[in-house]
Fold this protein.
Amino acid sequence: MRRSAHLAATTLVGVCCATLVFTFSNTSWADTAAGSSDPYSSAIVVEADTNQVLYAEHPDKSVYPASIVKLMTLRVVLDKIEAGELSLDDEVTATAEAARVGGSQVYLAEHEVFTVDDLLYALMIHSANDVAMALALHVGGTKEGFVRLMNDRAVTLGMRDTRFTSPHGLPPSRGKAADVTTARDVAKLARSVVRDPLTLHYSSTLYREFRGGKFDLRSHNDLLKSYEGCDGLKTGYYRLAGFSIAATARRNSVRVIAVVMGSRSSHTRDANAARLMTLGFDRAPELLASAMGPPLPPSN
């Protein structure tokens, strides 16, 4: 009896110790990714047309983008469309590899066929990971081939502190590297995609039917409903990355982009993204006027 009790106690202590080690280890990783201070790890606000930085806080800190990665997936697909190598009406057949991807998804089945247009709605509204993989395989041939296109595009955009390893941003499997970026680099990517009207067409949509009405696509971006002028762009989350967003809004002739990375909750993320966009709109006229130089004297 005593031996059994001793073994039980020893086992319990071992489990508790192992749990503590695991917890502290993951906490350290989380602090690296999401930052140890509220309300976020890093942030930046830019004026979209001129790239004027209106506010920044730790903009070059390395963070995990999670589903914000899908903005680069979109960028590569849009590039192929602009080059005439792909059409919105082209059909994409889901593979077994795409169907296996978990997380947020539309539950693609192997051999299902959808147009590129349908899949871009699912990518941007529902943040579907299986759709990101389906598009990646269709465009790049392999996941690795598409990721190379993503990283090549990052170079052309000047995203010097970014390294993509996936088309969807899910946390990596054991022994694999995670997608890594910075708030500043995300802003560069966001500026690039908002120049294409198709981006805002998809990112501003709150709801759409999919699969002939059998599945509902619902946006994860609540700022579309609560912030005046907001029409995008992309949220991201997994536990060690925290809650992040690349948000954009247009008021009159000014468009601002706010990037908030590594918040502790979606509420904190959204509240600060809204606050920072408002700050951006307040600061933009003054900074833009300063960038243009002093006013010309009146003509005679």
Remarks:
- Residues 1-36, 292-300 have pLDDT under 50 and may be disordered.
